């Protein structure tokens, strides 16, 4: 279907735009898509994107491409083998299987071509960045063609966030006859990407519990604990001189924004880049049964392993009244031998995680077209099955606040000039914290019906029945060494989508869409086996208008939406099933089931390509994301901005002295402030500031050569591109990338 006919919120980013921006990863591509942003507080591991403030599914040509598994394991997806990126917003369980509430990010992979062509490209950039890519495609016989794409890239990275990646993609297409096409593809990716889980931290100073703001404070405004709650527990007692030393160290943004550490950071040499290895095989079969009936089958095997060491915390405590205790150890300023270290980092933990995920997935799509009078129709019957087997182990090492071992990590005495522990992670008596196997199986059957009532009215209606089964086995840790029995749970239910699209004329169309999906509960979480825990549900409502002009060289859309993740189960604080407890109470429900994550707002997208001279991509989003947890509303989901927008425009100019035009590009991105508040750690109001970034590019095509220069962050703006836990991940400083490619037949 053309986008002007489609009764759903969809955005497509083509390869031309990605190439103009010299984009190499999925994270970089989201600037072109309304409603898609970085998630908050995922410890900086891999892709962790959200659509409309809620979770996203990742697929390659509709098949599983790894999940957002938070701080456990999560690949950083490359766009080396990608032709375009599609985003379908809202739940789509019936079409894509195991679903997320926000929507699906579908990456369309390169396919073999019937014409022989080759391309080699080299790239050089800041921080000793370099890459070499080779792309070859050609027919082998009149029925068979291949494509081979290889890539190697390496970078020391801004602030030492190094990366190295080797990739090989091989695809073979064969026409058995005019009605049967087979495509076999394989992929191997081996990368090492440094993880920064801390970024620039917010100093733990809670102005709400002090007697003055951080820029006017004196020592007398930081009183010691007086045991006002009468529990006999006192926080650390500081002398007036030490309290004045703390007051003198404060600046106006402490407790409210990250502390700017400049180009250095808290990335310890004890950390280890994420060594991710992915092996993927996919077989597709397309069969034209007759003029009105076709079958498309896909079978996928994917194996992904991950191994990294990350620093999970480095907290600089200044002043905090926590539940009636002022600066209670270890959430207190560091004092050693009566010497105060106002910029010290306490409660350090380093965590090593080793994980593996093996996935089998099968989809079969049977498409039938029909006509009845003036009405045309398309039926899509889909069946799918997916199985993921996962194993995970993690170990932790601590400073003296987390372990009684004589071999504890040294405290960081000053985050501005860190003193790091020597040796390796294994030298500090790692403790096994997690050790389990988990499997998740999902299946479903769906029927979609697209009706072309006439040239103006289109409907899309679908219903699906899907189910999931989960098993979990604890295999023993330091705290609970005994291997447990396998626990199992399952759930099933109905999902659906209803959409109408009406073309007011040849240039303007409106659409409305309502969909309901399902999310499998806690893909990596434990299963107790006590009862079958129901899956969460998701709903989305879209009301939009699309318009086109200049012979469809311009396409724009404006969408109002409301998307929810519902039926979230949280513990009821009043429930206590211990008969010997003073708060014993089993007359209330054990769980709240009516909690939700909700995002509503407006999205605007414009794409323009005029006379091959001028092109433009513009998108803007306003959204309000909040949560209802235990019947209380939490404003602005962590890391999700209310407003953001991006513009990229290119113009071809012909200079008289040159045989071909030069393309000039200019881009600007705006992102609103984002919350990083985590009240339990004493930062109720902390945020990452809004920012504006400018980028530019210039390229020249001369016969078979293509030369392109990209300039990023032209104004050298200091900003944070991701919200971390109690901190922000600094974005790159001003940098340059030069790409040169040669194409030949």
Structure, explained:
Residues 266-714 form the TonB-dependent receptor-like beta-barrel domain. One of its GO terms (molecular function) is siderophore uptake transmembrane transporter activity. Belongs to the TonB-dependent receptor family. There is one protein chain. This protein has 745 residues and is mainly beta. 3% of the residues lie in helices and 55% in strands. It has four helices and 41 strands. The strands form eight sheets. The chain has a 22-stranded antiparallel beta barrel. A five-stranded mixed sheet has the order 1-6-7-4-5. A three-stranded antiparallel sheet has the order 13-40-39, with no helix packed on it. The radius of gyration is 28 Å and the shape is globular.
Write the layout of secondary structure elements.
Layout: E1 10-14, H1 15-20, H2 26-29, E2 36-38, E3 49-51, E4 56-60, E5 63-64, E6 82-89, H3 93-96, E7 103-109, E8 117-125, E9 129-139, E10 144-155, E11 163-177, E12 180-193, E13 200-201, E14 204-205, H4 240-249, E15 274-290, E16 293-315, E17 317-319, E18 321-322, E19 325-326, E20 334-336, E21 339-341, E22 346-372, E23 375-398, E24 431-452, E25 457-474, E26 487-503, E27 508-519, E28 536-549, E29 554-571, E30 591-610, E31 614-629, E32 632-635, E33 643-653, E34 662-671, E35 674-675, E36 687-688, E37 691-702, E38 705-712, E39 720-724, E40 727-730, E41 735-744
Give the overall shape: globular
Helix proportion of residues, in percent? under 10%
Write down the oligomeric state: single chain
The total strand number stands at 41
Low-confidence stretches: none
Using only CA atoms, what is the Rg? 28 Å
Instruction: Label the structural class.
Output: mainly beta
Number of helices: 4
Q: Which percent range describes the beta-strand content?
A: over 45%
**Mean of residue pLDDT values:** 90
Largest sheet: 22 strands, antiparallel, barrel
- First and last CA, distance: 33 Å
GO molecular function: siderophore uptake transmembrane transporter activity
Domain TonB-dependent receptor-like beta-barrel: 266-714
Membrane topology: Multi-pass membrane protein
Protein name: TonB-dependent receptor
